[in-house]
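tool=predict chain=A
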Amino acid sequence: MNKSTLPLPPPVFLLIGVVAVSFSSILIKWSEAPASILGMYRLLFTVLLFLPFLPWREMKILFKNSTLKEWLMLAVSGVFLGLHFLFWMESFLHTTVASAMILTALEPVFVVIGAYFLFKEKTSKVGIISILIAVSGSVIIASGDIGVSKTALYGDLLSVLGTVAVSVHMLAGQKLCRKMPSIIYSFAVFLIGGLVLFVYNICTNVSLIQYDIKDWWIFLLLALIPNIFGHALFNWLLKYVDATTISMAILGEPIGAIILAYFLLGEMTTVSQLVGGMIVMISVMIFLKYKAAELEKVMALQEKSNIS
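tool=predict ok
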């Protein structure tokens, strides 16, 4: 961690990022536009905001030297990012902010499962137990929503599908992120994801422009607040803070969203959401701490082998 080059301590920036991403669900709830439109403009407006800051010369070199496999992985990452926004944003039309947000905390679980099948990356008993506990927490949330309505359960399913999609996005892009600057990678996948939703809207005859001025402001704010001051800020902080610390901080998003939903939307948290949410959050925290300790051991062994 390199604090000397930061104008403020890292926790301040982490807090700003968590608050920013927490507003995503509130802005979605405030809009009457379809989820596919919200996702499309959120991604494409972010692309426009990135344009003045792109290192064009470096982009040209990277794209020229990229292999067919890397182009394919970039496309897969962008497509599934678009699907993530489609499913996840649609979930808010059917279930509460609490359920939709807590279930997204399962992302590390799906990433580990995907890494096992795709890259043969194994995890220990601690990791497996924490995954099972996290899944049990999500089951508690879903079982509570069954008592609310079938629509709420459908919203939970969409949130899970959105989480699976973003996990595929992460798995497809993990090696690309090491090769190219975060702003170039983010620009590329945001553009691809936005174009995927554009094609989806055209094919399903969803209007692209007939929305109130309030909705257009929400489209812009979704790009500016959760994307630029949230996700882009987290990507920038990777230069100064380790990835596990950022992952732990992002777990504050469901908590922030639930608090904002209570004050701004009047949504109350049910007992099943509270209990299930605590189980999910605690288990994921244990899992991330375990992964951090595992990574430190691997790095220590590599340093020893290099010295010898």
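The longest helix spans residues 271-307. The mean pLDDT is 83.
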